[in-house]
Specification:
InterPro entries: Cro/C1-type_HTH (IPR001387), Lambda_DNA-bd_dom_sf (IPR010982), TransReg_Diox_bact_type (IPR050807). The protein has 5 helices and no strands. By secondary structure, the protein is mostly helical.
Length: 100
Amino acid sequence: MPTKAGKPPIKRGRSEVWTRGPTARAIKRELLLVGKRLRELRLERGLTQEQAAEAIGVHPKHVIKMEQGGANFTMATLVAAALAYKVPLRDLFPEDDNGQ
């Protein structure tokens, strides 16, 4: 529906590309893989979700969501997690089938 100036309204929120189809599936898959890796790192260090949350600077419920692949992480949160777990940022991302 055009506005008074005859221009289409500005869409807000995520693009359909992010919410449907192959891109959405790829995003979900990667969130699950990174979440699994975050859980592995936390458990290797003997931390509870509460301790991890404090170290990362997020609410414990956010740690749960991240580990389950249900949270869309910001770069700041990923950097904070890498620092908390004392690993390079790249170690939060699983290797692909080619070892990369």
